[in-house]
Specification:
The complex is a heterodimer of chains A (321) and B (355). With 321 residues, chain A is an alpha/beta fold. Chain A is 39% helix and 24% strand. Chain B folds into two domains: 225 residues, Rossmann fold; 72 residues, no CATH class. The two termini of chain B are 32 Å apart. Classes of the chains: A alpha/beta (321), B alpha/beta (355).
Chain lengths: 321, 355
């Protein structure tokens, strides 16, 4: 599907997020992020720690204020000062799944309360019976049982706890979900369960995900489009297949070379590429997002763009014979 | 590879006392490590991989005890050592450990230099100046640029990857014979992870120690290991050379671990996952610990614990499926011809190909 015909659900327009860390000192956590997320897709944001991926996710959730630019949700601005009614609308429709389910659930509250907290806050139930039904359904949707309601978070395993975190988000009937490293704190065998569950819920409820991760192998499996972020700058955006087939930005290539492969013969012969920003164009020209191929954007100067263009043409020729 | 056994654990059983109940964390594990090799132990959290290796350094929590078995190292049974004084000269000197999180293993209010020299001075009787010289040498060896100037800095002035390098420097400062790496890269970024793994490997080549890796990441295992042991429910259930474990796994749990990797998952299809939860170690485990979660479980798996069956001279697996009377079960589709599949992915045009 070409990107023009698709409905944009969230639009991030030239967003900066800056933290002031003392007198006249500041950290630019996100610099000039500019992209659209389409309805019904899983958009992944990949980068190492400190790259600003979580900060951007939190800016969408209105937790971190944007210092420049704006964020539009379904065409309406949700960044900066907005009315209280609109703020509540954002909270309802954009939900978050956190990394560590042990830390994000109130350990002194029962699962019943944890899951219905959003319902209480927004009075989204007609009567007690309606609330109970909604909670039971949310728990069933994520593969837990209604009788788990009276338990406390510590009585669950890691995977089950993450399911509670997902149920808590899903009960609000959101349209957009920010999933911040939802499987990083989980065991290998449980990761697969949670990924499958997220895919299933997405199809059933027609959701859109922003999936924040550091692991390209997970992202390849779940994402439709991928943005790679490095030091607060988004360096490359492409469809998932394209990014893996034609990675262009040196940082993307370095990241790809470090994905560990479960094969001793292959793994022992792989070389790990270290990203060296000093090899980029040092002319001082301002970098911007340029479209290399339809839907494939790279952050570069005009000189680098020419290099990338040459490289990708060569790759295309080689692959297509 | 050298065939000398450097450390030999035999029928080790570890129990913990938790709220007046006993939990059996390790159930009769035996393992021989050969000089100079890299052995990796893989398993989920709670499988006992950390607890088992802690018996090598006497670092079990105070409510835990080794209730059976022996760990022989240079003719000495390490399970008999009790006090810190007994352990002097072994822990930190001959057997060192690198832990997961470099921030918690370094002292935040002491300089990096102090923390390295402290170890050197304790284990080798040498002067302060000599210790400092050795420490700076070690820092350079683990790749700290400008080591002499960074000697007096504090841990917070170092990045995560650099901190882990310091932890490695401390662990290696007394030239240990065995280095235990307990999830050394889990808290680090993927790009840094590769660097730390490469560093440990090159130091091993240079200094010739034996490495015992503990990890849950099969990708890391494929990279570092000569031999692999898979742990589940407090037991090693399969071990062999790294090629044998990846290309010819025999235990259904090893199959399941390999199949659930997102690297080999196909987009648009469900990823394989293991149903249920690991067994509670408070209860006595009857038969094969993995049986309740195993789709290929036989009746006998619930009755009787399987012995180790020999697959090759180096490869053993603890599953009844290898008994001559057992029905023939093929490993899952997803991990058949694993090498060909991964080869394709990393070749030109594959998803993980880089120039």
């Amino acid at each position: 599907m070409s990107n023009e015909d698709r409905e944009v659900i969230l639009s991030i327009k030239h967003v900066d997020v800056t933290f002031h860390t003392g007198h006249k000192k500041k950290v630019e956590a996100v610099k000039n992020a500019n992209f659209d997320i389409y309805k019904g897709e899983t958009f992944a944001l990949v980068g190492e720690s400190g790259s600003g991926k979580t900060t951007l996710g939190r800016a969408i959730m209105r937790i971190n204020p944007c210092s420049a630019g704006e964020i539009l949700f379904e065409g309406k601005r949700i960044s900066g000062k907005i009315s209280r009614a609109e703020d509540r609308n954002v909270v309802r429709n954009i939900q978050m799944i956190f990394q560590d389910p042990a830390a994000s659930l109130n350990e002194r509250a029962t699962i019943d309360y944890c899951v219905s907290e959003g319902l209480y806050n927004f009075h989204l139930y007609k009567n007690e019976q309606d609330r109970v039904e909604k909670v039971d359904k949310a728990l069933k949707d994520v593969g837990l049982l209604p009788e788990h309601k009276s338990r406390y978070p510590h009585e669950f395993s890691g995977g089950q706890r993450q399911r509670v975190g997902i149920a808590r988000a899903m009960i609000m009937d959101p349209r957009f979900i920010v999933a911040d490293e939802p499987i990083s704190a989980l065991d290998v065998s449980i990761r697969a369960q949670v990924l499958n569950l997220m895919n299933k819920l997405k199809a059933e409820k027609n959701l859109t995900y922003l999936f924040i991760a550091h692991d390209l192998s997970v992202v390849r499996f779940i994402a439709d489009r991928i943005a790679v972020i490095h030091h607060g700058e988004i360096v490359e955006i492409a469809e998932s297949e394209t990014l893996f087939e034609y990675p262009i930005h040196p940082y993307t290539i370095a990241l790809l070379s470090t994905v560990p492969m479960p094969d001793p013969i292959v793994e022992k012969n792989r070389k790990h590429i270290v990203y060296d920003p000093s090899k980029l164009d040092q002319s001082g020209e301002k970098r911007e997002m340029r479209e290399l191929r339809p839907g494939h954007f790279v952050y570069c100067t005009s000189k680098e763009f020419a290099e990338y263009e040459e490289k990708i043409s060569k790759m295309e020729q080689e692959r297509n014979g | 590879m050298n065939e000398n056994v450097i450390i030999s654990a035999k029928d080790v059983e570890v129990k913990f006392r938790v709220r007046d109940k006993y939990l059996t964390a390790i159930r009769n594990v035996s393992l021989d490590l050969y000089e100079g090799e890299t052995f990796a132990i893989v398993g989920e959290s709670g499988s006992g991989k950390s607890v088992f290796t802690k018996t090598f350094t006497g670092m079990l929590e105070s409510n835990g005890k080794i209730s059976n078995g022996s760990v022989m190292f240079h003719g000495k049974d390490l399970t008999k050592l009790k006090t810190d004084k007994d352990w002097e000269g072994i822990r930190g000197a001959k057997i060192s450990t690198i832990f997961q999180d470099p921030m918690t293993s370094l002292n935040p209010i002491r300089t990096i230099g102090f923390q390295i020299t402290e170890v050197i001075e304790k284990h080798q009787k040498i002067s302060k100046a000599e210790a400092k010289k050795q420490a700076i040498e070690m820092m350079e060896r683990v790749g700290i640029p400008d080591a002499a100037n960074r000697f007096d800095e504090y841990p917070f002035q170092y990045s995560g990857g650099m901190r882990q390098r310091i932890v490695i420097a401390i662990a290696l400062s007394c030239h240990p014979e065995i280095l235990i790496c307990d999830e050394p890269t889990t808290a680090l970024d993927v790009t840094i992870q590769a660097q730390i793994i490469d560093l440990i490997r090159s130091l091993q080549k240079e200094l010739g120690f034996t490495t015992l890796y503990i990890t849950h990441d099969l990708g890391v295992v494929a990279n570092v290991a000569d031999r692999v042991g898979v742990m589940y429910g407090g037991q090693i259930i399969e071990y062999g050379n790294v090629d044998e474990i990846f290309f010819d796994p025999q235990h259904p749990y090893t199959w399941a671990l390999l199949s659930s990797l997102p690297q080999i998952g196909e987009k648009g299809k469900d990823l394989f996952y293991i149903t249920g939860t690991p067994p509670s170690l408070f209860n006595e485990i009857k038969g094969d610990a993995f049986a309740p979660r195993n789709e290929h479980a036989l009746n006998i798996d619930f009755e009787q614990e399987p012995p180790f069956f020999k697959v090759s001279d180096t490869h053993y697996a603890k599953t009844w499926l290898l008994d001559p009377r057992a029905p023939k079960v093929e490993k899952p589709e997803a991990i058949r011809d694993l090498h060909e599949k991964i080869q394709k992915m990393t070749e030109k045009g594959g998803a993980f190909y880089v120039e």
